[in-house]
Description:
The protein is α/β, with parallel strands linked by helices and 262 residues long. It folds into two domains: 6-66, CST, Suppressor of Cdc13 homolog, complex subunit STN1, N-terminal domain (Arc Repressor Mutant, subunit A); 74-254, no CATH class. It contains ten helices and 14 strands. The strands form five sheets. The chain has a four-stranded mixed β-sheet. The protein has a three-stranded antiparallel β-sheet with strand order 1-3-2. α5 (93-99) packs antiparallel against α6 (156-165) and α7 (172-183) crosses α9. The protein is elongated. The termini are far apart.
Amino acid sequence: MTSIAPRQLPDHLLSQGVSTFTTSDAQELLDGSSPAAIHRALSRLRASGQVFSPAQGFWVVIPPEYRSWGVVPAERFIDEMMRALGRVYYVALLSAASLHGAAHQAPQVFQVMCAPPLRDRAVARVRLRFFSGRHVASAPTEPRTVSTGTMRVATPELTVIDMVALPGESGGYGNVATVLGELGGLDGSSLAALARPRGRGLTRRVSWLVEHFGHCDDLEPLREAAAPDEGEPTLLRAGAGRRGHTDRTWGIRVNTDVQSDL
Length: 262
């Protein structure tokens, strides 16, 4: 690489179609600069709103249209950041739902499933919330093209499974019901295959919510996975007591009121 002056680094990278870089990249570009000089140069660029660092040693160039923000939207750097950190990931929960067209309530944070675990972080107006699970590496995802490349996004069916598994992070079951109404057609076989390894309780909750609020091509695979005639009914809302009626179609004790905003 050709050596350049520190103040030229952001515009040089943008002119090359590069939106992220590491401290090591900066040392190579600013040939001859000492580590201390590199640190000072990057600190000045950050203070002037031209770059920011969402992870140690990883930097994002801020194009002119975002310099008043001091940051860029998470989708512009999440893929390269997770690669730099050595994490398998996918965009999840409400963030994934909004990308699939369910934007009734825009998420306030950018939600990501990853493995190994990663701490949450916030940079200016961008807040990243990370979740972890054993299923992440094998989870079905879809590539989504963004202005800086691509990112991995949970399929609609995986999005539903994760939201039901983490209702508190998804705005509660009422919001999950609303999202289900906006997601469009779901594949019943895919839902069943994803839910079954996570347990009968989750499978039954997913099945009940999908039947009442979603659009599914075939509920029979979910019915088989839910095994509603086996064992005690599952509480729709865990820890909320056993009040309410039992829906024997799915083996669910409906112990909470769920209403969609649609």
